[in-house]
């Protein structure tokens, strides 16, 4: 199933508290068969968008035993959500408020949340401010401690910002940047990743986000001490939690996952074999692991 497939969901447009328009995909929102279970809300990474979750959303929303409504959000400045004229608004606090606005607009009082990378950092804030909203949480290759090596890798490939001339070259660029850590991906997976990350703008293939977001990362000073989110992580203790770590991730260390499990004894941990940061959630045995976790709720 290609991520270029534009079927299987309803398009939702939500107005953020400051008036900015946000885009979301709603899988199963028009089907009564998914009404008995809390929906799943997916929050993407720093420069990623709702298309990252397309295949997983189709799997979960069409599950033969327990189909769930799945909502995937384009954070402001990404995908089809509007770019913000005030670039200072690209921060975790504002993006957490946007998630709350989406839940209010769609009349969602409780949901299972999947947060990939930056999306998981947003969930660290929401678990403190709105714990009753979180039925359960899946953190995808993110935790309260970020490794400088992983942050450096993200900064470096955003700095390269090579523009592909066609879709084949887009795949080649992704392989150059990530091939060493994503050994589990097949040819179709690389094509899907390209279609999820890039879009066509004015006849040219370009990364699908406001460049100001990448600029924030490019200016990151890795010599300065990095704050951690252990105080916020403590709020997850009363919430069912699953953590997925890419086997080759440089951003989320094994030691951090072990400490997370020590502080949250009920936590489910899963390794995404042959993947780096951040794992693609429809590859390998990850969908089955997510289904198994959801079945325990």
Your description of this structure?
The protein is of the alpha/beta class. The chain has a domain at 10-146 and 227-295: Rossmann fold, CATH 3.40.50. Helix content is 34%, strand content 18%. Strands 1-2-4-3-5-6-9-10 form an eight-stranded mixed β-sheet, with helices on both faces. A two-stranded antiparallel ribbon has the order 7-8. Helix 5 crosses helix 6. The mean pLDDT is 94.
SSE order and pairing:
Elements: E1 10-15, E2 21-27, E3 40-43, H1 54-61, E4 70-74, H2 92-105, E5 111-116, H3 118-129, E6 134-140, H4 148-160, H5 167-178, H6 187-197, E7 198-201, E8 204-207, H7 211-218, H8 230-233, E9 241-246, H9 254-263, E10 268-272, H10 286-295
Parallel strand pairs: 3-4, 3-5, 5-6, 6-9, 9-10
Antiparallel strand pairs: 1-2, 2-4, 7-8
Helix pairs in contact: 2-3, 4-7, 5-6
Structural class: alpha/beta
Name of the CATH first level of the domain at 10-146 and 227-295 = Alpha Beta
* Largest pleated sheet: 8 strands, mixed
Low-confidence residue ranges = none
What fraction of the residues are assigned to beta strands by DSSP? 15-25%
| CATH fold node name of the domain at 10-146 and 227-295 | Rossmann fold
Radius of gyration: 18 Å
The percentage helix is 25-40%
Offer a few descriptive terms.
Rossmann fold; eight-stranded mixed sheet; two-stranded antiparallel sheet; 10 strands
Concise description?
This protein is an alpha/beta fold.
């Amino acid at each position: 199933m290609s991520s270029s497939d534009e079927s299987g969901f309803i398009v939702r447009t939500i107005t953020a508290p400051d008036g900015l328009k946000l885009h979301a995909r709603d899988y199963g929102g028009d089907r009564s068969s998914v009404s008995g279970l809390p929906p799943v809300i997916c929050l993407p990474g720093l420069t990623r968008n709702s298309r990252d979750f397309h295949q997983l959303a189709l799997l979960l929303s069409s599950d033969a035993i327990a189909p769930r409504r799945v909502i995937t959000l384009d954070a402001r400045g990404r995908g089809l959500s509007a770019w913000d004229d005030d670039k200072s608004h690209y921060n975790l606090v504002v993006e957490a408020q946007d998630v709350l606005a989406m839940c209010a607009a769609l009349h969602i009082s409780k949901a299972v949340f999947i947060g990939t990378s930056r999306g998981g950092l947003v969930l660290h804030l929401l678990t403190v401010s709105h714990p009753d909203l979180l039925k359960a949480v899946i953190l995808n290759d993110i935790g309260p401690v970020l490794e400088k090596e992983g942050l450096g890798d993200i900064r470096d490939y955003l700095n390269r910002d090579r523009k592909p001339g066609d879709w084949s070259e887009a795949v080649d660029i992704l392989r150059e940047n990530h091939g060493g850590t994503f050994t589990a991906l097949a040819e179709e997976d690389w094509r899907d990743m390209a279609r999820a990350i890039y879009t066509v703008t004015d006849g040219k293939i370009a990364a699908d986000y406001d460049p100001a977001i990448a600029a924030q990362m490019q200016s990151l000073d890795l010599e300065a001490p990095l704050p951690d989110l252990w105080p916020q992580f403590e709020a997850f203790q009363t919430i069912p939690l699953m953590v997925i770590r890419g086997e080759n991730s440089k951003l989320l260390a094994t030691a951090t996952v072990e400490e997370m499990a020590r502080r949250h004894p009920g936590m489910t941990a899963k390794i995404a074999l042959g993947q780096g940061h951040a794992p693609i959630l429809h590859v390998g045995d990850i969908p089955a692991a997510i289904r198994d976790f959801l079945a325990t709720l």
